[in-house]
Amino acid sequence: MSTTRPLGPFHVSPIGLGCMNLSHAYGAPPSTEQGRALLHQALDEGCTLFDTAALYGFGANESLVGPVLKPFRQRITLCSKGGMAGVTGADGNITRVIDGRPEALRRNCEDSLRRLGTDVIDLYYLHRWDKRVPIEESVGAMARLLAEGKVRALGLSEVSAATLRRAHAEHPIAALQSEYSLWTRNPEIAVLQACRELGVALVAFSPVARGYLGSLTDVSTLDAKDIRRSMPRFAPATYAANLALLAPVQALAAELCCTVAQLALAWLLHQGEHIIPIPGTTQAQHLSDNLAASRITLSAAHVARLGEAINRHTVQGARYNTATQAEIDTEEFGQGA
Strand 5-7 relative to strand 275-277: parallel, antiparallel, unpaired? Predict the structure, then answer.
């Protein structure tokens, strides 16, 4: 397995770091000092791909990540996202808003550049397709940001193969970011093939299934504000049924002397050279384990065993609730993966 993977004009570490966990989504985030330490550890251990977004912590994540990575900009690939961000209302409260209009994307990008403390974002994603705005219009606005030197390459997040093709016809797309793991197989419907045909990298977020393929055994311990509490797969009875699927995966991990999370990441890497997982974590040991997963070699039999144990037919529960599902544009298998 190669030591780097192509991502548009860049070559990056096979496994990147999703920085969201340091500021957003899973309850109380770690302290600023802990977040900085984790970022420095990722740099020290060879990670060269870092993923953030205007949404994460409503800008707090970019403000954390930017200063730490600034001295290393020449040797890393820095990614951020616009089109979904926090907007402050008249009452002072911040609301998450999906807005793909050209003026909103420009504002998001310029705000991100300021928070990150950089002149250019290497890979800039449309975080969600605003279905009120033609994808060509949003991508065209992003292409103008590229022409102005504010970004170096364009990406999309959580879109279908058809939307990817429309966008790519407007301007070349370097990467499509989608949830992909043993328990979320939706990219296998059409997106993976479209990415292969177009030369687009598939950047896999939540590659260890938001902790399911990591260390989460008891969903009752989740923080009250943890986004997983609204996800059907993490409902107590459903999650208990999904935990029962792990036994053969745990057995194979023991055989190969690795963790279940490492096995899950290795499985993803073996699905194609154009796939780049970006697990997130707040734990130093988990970070080391995740990055080391790129050194695990699986046989075809190992890959098959994993795929048979956890797949769209065996996993229970939808990945999103109805309201969140309506916001995205991906092919879905339905209740399973």
Answer: unpaired
Q: Residue range 204-224: average pLDDT?
A: 96
> Which tokens is 277 given?
């997982």
pLDDT > 90: percent of the chain: 96
Q: Is 198 within 8 Å of 176 (Cβ atoms)?
A: no
Q: Hey, what domains does the chain have and what are their CATH numbers? A: 5-212+271-295 (3.20.20.100)
* pLDDT 10s digits, 280-337: 999 999 999 999 999 999 999 999 999 999 999 999 999 999 999 999 999 988 644 4
With both helix axes pointing from N to C terminus, report the angle between 161-170 and 135-147 in degrees, rounded to the nearest 10.
40
Q: What does the H/E/C string look like for the chain?
A: CCCCEEECCEEECCCCEECHHHCCCCCCCCCHHHHHHHHHHHHHCCCCEEECCCCHHHHHHHHHHHHHHHHHHHHCEEEEEECEEEEECCCCCEEEEECCCHHHHHHHHHHHHHHHCCCCEEEEEECCCCCCCCHHHHHHHHHHHHHCCCEEEEEEECECHHHHHHHHHHCCCCEEEEECECCECHHHCCHHHHHHHHCCEEEEECCCHHHCCCCCCCHHHCCCCCHHHHCHHHCHHHHHHHHHHHHHHHHHHHHHCCCHHHHHHHHHHCCCCCEEECCCCCCHHHHHHHHHHHHCCCCHHHHHHHHHHCCCCCCCCCCCCHHHHCCCECCCCCCCC
Record the tokens describing residue 276, joined without a space. 């780049």
pLDDT of residue 38: 98
**What average pLDDT does this structure show over 238-251?**
98
Q: What are the tokens at 199?
A: 């030369």
Two structure tokens written together for 222: 């989740």
Is 96:55 a contact under the CB 8 Å cutoff? yes
Beta-strand relationship, 10-12 and 5-7: antiparallel
| Catalytic residue numbers, as ranges | 56
Contacts of 309 (CB under 8 A, 6+ apart): 182, 245, 246, 248, 249
